User: Which sequence fits this backbone?
């Protein structure tokens, strides 16, 4: 569709850097080989909750081959945290989950590191452990953070403890509307903790340079966030810390530690490097990775909806209890988002939802792909089917009935502009054969929708350097994790500069040189870096036209650029090569370098004025449930997405498939299981079941056009929204097949069979 | 003097990076330790001129531990050169000096590299060798470059060969003026080739990355020039080559290979890395360094001046024969500058000088500190004393008589603005005690002046990133070779942003990220990067004021910034920390990053309109000549310099002292000596005499104020001009002591004694 207007955009060019990835040639963090580097390791708490009485590192320090042993006493007395400042780099006085870092060692080999860690003697005084997010709110629960006050915005009547943050969502008069509703449906849903399970382990390597600066390599999604953490925790200025991003073998939000105060191995690594006076590299092993890093939290969601007989939703009330784990981490943001989304994305005039984010003695909440969204959508969209069933209305019709229209307000979006929700539902219904497909025995059909945040959050910049030969070197602050940097970004530069995509090189993030960026999170690569890159490329083009104008004896406004030639529009014979103009820049401004930034304040103002056009999606599937084993087999799966203008169709499809697969995993099998002491029972892939290829359906993706978003050319983010609908779509199909509504994840054979048996009784 | 107006500028803060340098902690090229790297070495011609009949690399390739052996046949068929494209990366068909690279090897160790180099069998057919720059112009001389045509601008009657470039300097009617002069003095001067003799050897290391890009580390003064050479010679786009600058242990122009097509080990290193599929590092040893890299050329200068009885100069004619060596290298530029400067920097209305830059079978001319200038000044300023003697006028008076005034034209400068020449002469005369100091036996006093080019040449950029804590990270394209990057640049940022100098970090050049730059040459660091940095810092400050204005409820125009606080002028209580504003930028434009560039076209236009204010200098000294040995001892040495606004006094003094020391060395002892076959006789420090501390006088530097230049705040470049006057100042003092005018360098004991004896005969 885009081909008429654009030359590169809308096509599915080969991903830059793809060959290296599939041939194993790419340099990942673990491939780093710093001269004279030693290994680092972290001693983690073996108690989920305990006082630290004493730490004796003398034996560990005495071990031959040990370069440094550090505890909280060796670091500046500085805490960190994204919303609540509640955490030390290394635990001080208390540990709060089984995995809390207590001490760290740098030694000549991994073997010596392990020996030294064993020789650190920590005396603990165990404290009562609380793992359940509702139990932790009770007066009887142990207090996790003595020094953290309750949130100032807590409802006055809330008699709670261990609450880390609170979100209240209010609209209209839900009490009155609920009383006037024809039908009220009330349910409770629950999702469990899952781990993002990227295959590449988390690494960090740090070196103190001769001038005292600290260089840090990390497979981090938020290199600037890591820089902030390291600078703050080591008490050095930001320009004395340099973070270089390595290739990333999967992150899914789990490696965004700089913005989550999550795993935070980087500051520990930097401290070790300073103390050891040697470069230090830390590589987490699988078990340590699983128990200690940031995760997708479990949520308990109370949801109640009032509807009119005709299917019009009139009120929604509810409560979210969102498990932040031992520290606030990303909990406040993810919990708030879950709370908002429990209000749904349909026209719902009256809403009241309380969202409590709570501390428990478990590992810490991170911004895993679509943080808070899939949990909320599991409740909302399962609940939609429950209401439709109670009303006796077809689930598709019921959804279409409540689709908002332009100018409407939904929870979290004050004013909507273009709404693709209805179209995605209609297409998904058509693609899955809703009401037409003949279902076999034990088969069921289900649908669920979703939406996602758009265009809020920090701005960011881009720099497009046009080299003397007309090739371009591009700097953005987003890392390459399979998103825009190697797909959309080079395409945008190629499009605006009239050069081949292969003449565009997007370099890896180096916090010294790259534009500041909040992190490669929140589906924001194309919104932030794409917008900035487009403006930077246009800036560069304008400079080129200005330089070329005198050579071509034409006005800059009359010029165009194509195939690396600058031409006078309508006079194709009058042209000059881009390389000539770029080289001539030397004797004027030095070089052609374009700058651009995504102004998030401006973007917000525009949306306030004209309304917001968030992405919507509808997924539908057909499943077969084995009544003897409870096994659920997905027979067909369709995903319909509006991502606004599609810059690279295959990349978007890849994002949709990946995101859907992640939530299909959470729907069918994944969860982190704890024993009563707070110990993770399944830290390896042997025990933590991920969906295998046998469980995965082919995901048939359809992209909907015509609903431009806030990104460049009308693009919207596409990385996370695919995670939102799958769990409810599958649960709805199971319910359709069996007549049993399962409200707690995962929909594993064990749980499904248990539900089927319970229903029979 | 600057302290009232400025807070940082004009003070002598500690040099950034100085401690690491003096403690040996700095990471120089030789300290690089790339994983899996192998060593590289170059086979150099043992003939000064020969045909290459054949090269057999089979035995070398068969040697265990050898990873690659390359010759011209392994590289793309591409030549290079700065003005004349006359050179291959590895010699093809012919070699033209003893040191010309013929083949190269990558092997597991330096020992295996050496063995392999010996096993490369090259069959040569020797050709006649020409070493003398005047001989090479004769019809009887062998032709060095069959494929290079004579310069198009050669005078029609010039019956010459092996001329690489020609410069003609013309003004007025010198023939007529010379005929009307009262006195005409005609002399011939000659200087010999010297090597820049930086202590750190030249290194290059190259690695091909998994995506095919080539990363190159080099102690190069012109990283972007190296990038251009590597990309062109390996036929890859510029954005597929990345050059990282290492610390530099002295360069003096000798390491500016990217802009000179001089030593050019970098493309060879890159080719080896590609072929060996391993990182390759080349380190030149002292002898190879001396015989193969670029040098300061010898020049033969014919000079003739007509003067009136009162001392007014009326005409200057002359001829320069400038030795480019085997390839054009930097010869055209250095030779042209020498030719121009032979016209002097006094008021001289009628001028005709022919400058021939010629090929000989010697190593290649590079841009050594003040290229062409010291040679010309030796002739011009010795000649001035010869004229004064003939007229019977005091040399100081004679010079002052011919000082130009505002609006005047001198050779190379169409219109002068502020002229410090007279003041520097007067101060130098006063400081040395001219006409007052009582000279002892065999003692003499001498003075010489100088000038240098200013503000011509390419532009360049700067980027000032203001981090969230108010610290700044700065990118410029100039490397740190003891010039502006670690002195003036951080001071300018500190001054304009109101932050401490230690909060400013100037990062090393990375061609991916740094602004393009022509190279750290031509006394242009403060002019180009200083101007760009000042504008970038002001741009950043403007952004900060714009962001702060709403917080402070004030107009951006009413704000000031000091001590990391933004304040409302006149209302000091209304303030906000810089860190707060810089952090708040996240939610608007991402970050505060200022951009600036030095627009050389604009600068040239301004100078055309208002005139140019070049730097001037006068050096004076007292020497004692031992009549029995010819040894010259400098008893007192004063250097008076106008460098415009002085940003860092001690740094400028350091530049003056270093530059003067270099030319004192050339005056008293240094030269590269060749045998008749073109073999360098003194490739080591054992045979190549550098001035020792015993030979060096204390250099008493005085800086003259009040003559603003084209740089930031009125600064002028200060790195090279100190090289210009010393040789003539010393020769004039010797003449004053002995009555003997020596017109050929060096003024070594041997040469002085020979001249004294010849004068006696």
Assistant:
């Amino acid at each position: 569709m885009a081909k008429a207007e654009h030359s590169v955009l809308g096509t599915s060019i080969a991903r830059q850097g793809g060959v290296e990835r599939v041939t194993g040639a790419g340099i990942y963090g673990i491939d780093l080989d710093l001269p004279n580097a030693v290994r680092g390791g972290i001693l983690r708490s073996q108690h989920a909750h305990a006082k630290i009485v004493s730490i004796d590192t003398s034996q560990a320090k005495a071990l031959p081959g040990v370069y440094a042993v550090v505890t909280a006493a060796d670091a500046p007395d500085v805490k960190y945290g994204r919303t609540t400042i509640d955490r030390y780099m290394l635990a001080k006085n208390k540990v709060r989950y089984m995995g809390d870092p207590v001490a760290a060692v740098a030694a000549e080999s991994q073997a010596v590191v392990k020996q030294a860690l064993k020789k650190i003697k920590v005396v603990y005084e165990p404290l009562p452990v609380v793992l359940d997010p509702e139990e932790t709110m009770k007066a009887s629960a142990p207090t996790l953070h003595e020094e953290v006050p309750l949130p100032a915005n807590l409802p006055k009547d809330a008699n709670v403890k261990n609450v880390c943050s609170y979100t209240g969502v209010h609209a209209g008069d839900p009490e009155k509307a609920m009383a006037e509703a024809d039908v009220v449906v009330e349910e409770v849903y629950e999702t469990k903790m899952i781990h993002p399970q990227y295959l590449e382990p988390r690494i960090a390597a740090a070196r103190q340079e001769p001038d005292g600066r600290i260089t840090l390599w990390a497979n981090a999604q938020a290199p600037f966030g890591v820089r902030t953490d390291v600078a703050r925790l080591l008490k050095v200025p930001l320009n004395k810390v340099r973070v270089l991003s390595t290739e990333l073998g999967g992150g899914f939000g789990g490696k965004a530690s700089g913005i989550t105060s999550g795993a935070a191995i980087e500051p520990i690594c930097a401290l070790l490097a300073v103390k050891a006076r040697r470069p230090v590299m830390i590589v987490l092993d699988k078990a340590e990775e699983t128990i200690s890093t940031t995760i997708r939290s479990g949520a308990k969601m109370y949801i109640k909806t009032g509807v009119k007989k005709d299917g019009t939703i009139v009120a929604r009330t509810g409560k979210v209890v969102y498990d932040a784990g031992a520290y606030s981490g990303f909990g406040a943001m993810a919990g708030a988002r879950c709370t908002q989304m429990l209000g749904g994305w349909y026209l719902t005039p009256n809403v009241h939802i309380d969202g409590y984010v709570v501390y428990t003695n478990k590992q810490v909440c991170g911004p895993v792909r679509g943080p808070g969204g899939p949990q909320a959508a599991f409740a909302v969209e399962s609940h939609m089917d429950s209401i439709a069933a109670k009303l006796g209305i077809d689930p598709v019709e019921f959804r279409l009935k409540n689709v908002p229209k332009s100018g409407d307000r939904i929870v979290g979006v004050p004013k909507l502009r273009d709404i693709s929700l209805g179209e995605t539902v209609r297409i998904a219904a058509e693609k899955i054969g809703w009401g037409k497909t003949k279902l076999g025995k034990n088969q069921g059909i289900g649908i669920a929708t979703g939406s996602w945040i758009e265009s809020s959050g920090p701005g960011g910049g881009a720099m497009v350097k046009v080299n003397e030969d007309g090739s371009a070197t591009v700097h953005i602050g987003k890392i390459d994790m399979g998103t825009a940097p190697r797909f959309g970004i080079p395409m945008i530069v190629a499009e605006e500069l009239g050069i081949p995509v292969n003449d565009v090189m997007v370099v890896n993030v180096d916090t010294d040189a790259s534009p500041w960026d909040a992190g490669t999170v929140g589906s924001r690569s194309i919104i932030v870096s794409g917008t900035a890159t487009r403006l930077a490329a246009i800036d560069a083009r304008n400079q080129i036209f200005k330089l070329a104008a005198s050579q071509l004896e034409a006005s800059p406004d009359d010029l165009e650029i194509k195939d690396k030639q600058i031409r006078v529009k309508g006079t194709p014979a009058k042209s000059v090569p881009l390389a000539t103009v770029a080289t001539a820049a030397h004797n004027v401004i030095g070089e052609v370098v374009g700058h651009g930034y995504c102004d998030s304040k401006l973007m917000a103002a525009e949306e306030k004025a004209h309304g917001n056009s968030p992405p919507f999606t509808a997924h539908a599937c057909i499943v077969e449930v084995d009544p003897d084993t409870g096994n659920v087999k997905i027979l067909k799966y369709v995903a319909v997405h509006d991502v606004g203008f599609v810059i690279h169709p295959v990349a978007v499809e890849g994002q949709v498939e990946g995101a859907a697969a992640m939530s299909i995993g959470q729907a069918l099998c994944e969860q982190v299981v704890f024993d009563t002491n707070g110990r993770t029972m399944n830290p390896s892939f042997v025990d933590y079941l991920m969906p295998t290829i046998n469980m995965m359906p082919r995901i048939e993706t359809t992209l909907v056009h015509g609903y431009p978003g806030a990104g460049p050319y009308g693009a919207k983010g596409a990385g996370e929204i695919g995670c939102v609908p799958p769990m409810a779509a599958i649960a709805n199909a199971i319910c359709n097949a069996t007549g049993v509504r399962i409200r707690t994840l995962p929909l594993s054979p064990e749980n499904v069979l248990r539900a089927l048996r319970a229903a029979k009784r």
About this structure: The first strand of chain B starts at residue 38 and ends at 44.
